[in-house]
Design a protein that fits this description.
about 130 residues, mainly alpha, 5 helices, binds heme C
């Protein structure tokens, strides 16, 4: 009896692995959920690793804002103006004029609203 039970156990385990593997392969890339279209930067290198920025840009920008307004620091690494210089769209010259423009793209997708451009320009100061 014991060897049979072991064999049965192994079969169940194998089946589980197989089903799990198939479900994983089917679910990962072809999830059918549309991804946001994010226009590429104009060039150069981001102020931090892009993967870090994807997760943390809101934090560094907010710290920068607090530093500027409360501490008078205006030479920070995370100046909003520099983001816009690199990330403004080549077609609209803005980061937030259309839904594929950089700061708009993910935010529209994730239903995030930011008020930054009510005061700050969404265009680079120097023309391309
Ligand atoms: C009510 C107007 C207003 C709003 C809204 C606003 N800011 Fe500002 N922000 C300012 C002012 C005024 C300064 C100081 C300008 C200066 O020193 O050049 C500033 C400075 C900054 C700075 C430092 C200077 C620079 O150019 O980098 C950053 C970063 C910044 N804001 C980010 C943000 C972000 C991100 C948002 C949206 C979440 C935002 N601000 C919304 C008024 C505003
Ligand atoms: C010198 C140019 C440059 C500056 C300045 C810059 N970036 Fe970037 N950034 C890039 C490049 C290049 C990438 C890689 C992706 C690409 O090519 O669009 C990138 C990637 C990113 C990403 C990830 C995008 C994605 O598709 O996942 C975020 C978010 C980001 N930057 C935010 C910022 C913010 C916020 C600032 C200002 C504090 C900033 N960047 C300043 C060039 C720049
Ligand atoms: C790669 C996608 C992506 C790009 C590009 C992007 N954001 Fe975001 N941003 C997000 C997501 C997602 C959130 C919401 C995060 C959360 O809720 O934790 C967010 C949140 C924010 C917030 C905080 C909003 C709040 O209510 O607290 C600010 C400020 C912000 N982004 C500024 C910017 C600026 C400025 C740019 C352009 C320079 C930009 N983002 C580009 C994905 C992006």
């Amino acid at each position: 009896m014991a060897p049979l039970r072991v064999a049965f156990g192994a079969l169940v385990l194998l089946l589980g692995l197989l089903i799990g593997g198939v479900a994983h392969a089917a679910g990962a890339p072809a999830s059918g959920v549309p991804q946001p279209v994010v226009e590429a930067a104009r060039g150069g290198q981001c102020v931090e690793d892009p993967a870090f920025m994807r997760r943390n840009h809101m934090k560094v920008l907010k710290h920068q804002r607090d530093d500027t307004l409360r501490g008078g620091v205006r030479t920070g690494q995370y100046s909003l103006k520099t983001c816009i210089d690199c990330h403004a769209s080549k077609s609209t010259n803005s980061v937030a004029a259309s839904d594929t423009n950089f700061c708009q793209s993910c935010h529209t997708y994730a239903a995030v609203k930011i008020d930054c451009f009510e005061c700050h320009s969404n265009k680079p100061q120097v023309k391309p």
